[in-house]
Design brief:
It is built from five helices and six strands; from the N terminus they run ααββααββββα. The protein is elongated, with a radius of gyration of 27 Å. It has a four-stranded antiparallel sheet, with helices on one face. Strands 1-2 form a two-stranded antiparallel sheet. The chain has one domain. By secondary structure, the chain is of the alpha+beta class. A hairpin with a 4-residue loop joins strand 5 and strand 6.
Length: about 260
């Protein structure tokens, strides 16, 4: 009696992928990676921009608390007096209100080191003497070397700026993102090319406390958001905010972000 059976070799045979099939799979993975990696990068930068906005919002709350404590006066760019320990920039003045130095560091900013006139422990580390190190990321909209500019902030020695002097606090910038400038102020059009970028925009803190992400050129035209009366002083020789030199520099900054 014959018994039918299937050969052992037919049971044990395994079909392998062909080279063409492997190449097709690799090509599909490469295409998906090329599509998804930029999306992930944009999502990560959007998260960093949101974190930076949160930093500026906390700084803005500190600025408003300072103003309430000092009879509706705007926070000064810095406080100076004679002596070895003479300059305290605005982030140091805000420490009693924000109690943090890390909120002065934008997560997208790769600059190292500290803002000038900070991180000085030469007189000791007691609360009366210690100067905390402030990372480089933000700068005040101030013209310490151009006192006639009608800017949002100025040296304490130049006198207080009343909040009532702002024609429209919602369209007047107080603090900007700063890429690698170690100075506390954003004082001339040369600094307008130094704005930190987030996907073609930069974050700005306004005098009413709100934070907005804008393209740099939008802050200089059609109105000047760097002066308390929002007026542009466009002359060939003046270094005032939003003159032709400022607008050109803002355009350069915007181009570099794209």
């Amino acid at each position: 009696m014959q018994t039918s059976f299937t050969s052992r070799t037919s049971f044990g045979a395994k079909k392998a992928f062909t080279l063409i099939e492997l190449l097709v799979v690799i090509a599909i993975i490469a295409i998906l990676a090329a599509i998804l990696f930029p999306v992930f990068a944009r999502a990560r930068e959007n998260a960093r921009r949101s974190s930076c906005q949160s930093n500026l919002k906390q700084i803005g709350l500190g600025v408003m608390q300072y103003s309430q404590d000092y009879d509706e006066a705007m926070l000064p760019l810095r406080w100076s007096w004679s002596g070895a320990y003479s300059i305290r920039p605005f982030p140091v003045l805000l420490q009693p209100y924000v109690k943090s130095t890390q909120i002065f560091k934008c997560p997208s900013n790769t600059a190292t080191g500290f803002m000038n006139d900070t991180s000085d422990t030469s007189l000791g580390t007691t609360p009366a003497n210690f100067m905390p190190g402030i990372p480089v990321s933000y700068a005040a909209n101030a013209g310490s070397n151009d006192p006639g500019e009608d800017r949002a902030m100025q040296e304490a020695a130049a006198g207080n700026i009343s909040l009532a002097s702002f024609n429209n606090p919602a369209t007047t910038i107080t603090i900007v993102e700063n890429k690698n400038n170690p100075y506390a102020d954003f004082y001339d059009n040369g600094r307008a090319t130094d704005l930190q970028g987030h996907l073609g925009t930069s974050n700005f803190l306004f005098a009413d406390g709100h934070v907005k992400s804008l393209k740099p050129l939008a802050t200089g035209t059609p109105i000047c958001m760097y002066t308390r009366n929002n007026a542009a002083l466009r002359t060939a020789t003046t270094t005032s905010a939003c003159n032709a030199g400022w607008v050109t520099s803002l355009g350069t900054s915007q181009t570099n972000m794209n």
